[in-house]
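Sharing a chain and its predicted structure for anyone who wants a worked example. Both blocks are below, sequence first, tokens second.
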Amino acid sequence: MTLSTSEEDLDWASRDFGGVISRRPRAVLKPTSFEEIRTALLDGLALTPRGQGHSTRGQAQSEGGVVLDMTGFDTALRHGRTPPVLTDYLGLSVGGTLSVGGHGGASHQHGAQTDTVLELDVLTPNGSRTTAPTP
């Protein structure tokens, strides 16, 4: 588990698409596995997840906290898996678009991106990992 305090990482984590709010974290965690996130949780770190930072009011920022850089989990395309619905702007993360529904050019046929999710891997604050089916 690597906690970065480099100026470049802290600057990245204190900005978002909206450019209105800036909250500087004390560190950025760049995990490559669920186990690294679990370790951080069990160490008592309060984490704020961030994908591409496409929020507009600082939702993925953490004043004095730890921002969880989720860009290391961008593996779906490498495995030949893509959601049937993608937003019109491909610079977003799947997690980010799921948090707001995710509409795109194929929504007329497949619904929202959230309608196509079969299950989610969930890591709870106490470090338990479970796979949750969607309704």
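Comments welcome. The two ends are 34 Å apart (CA to CA).
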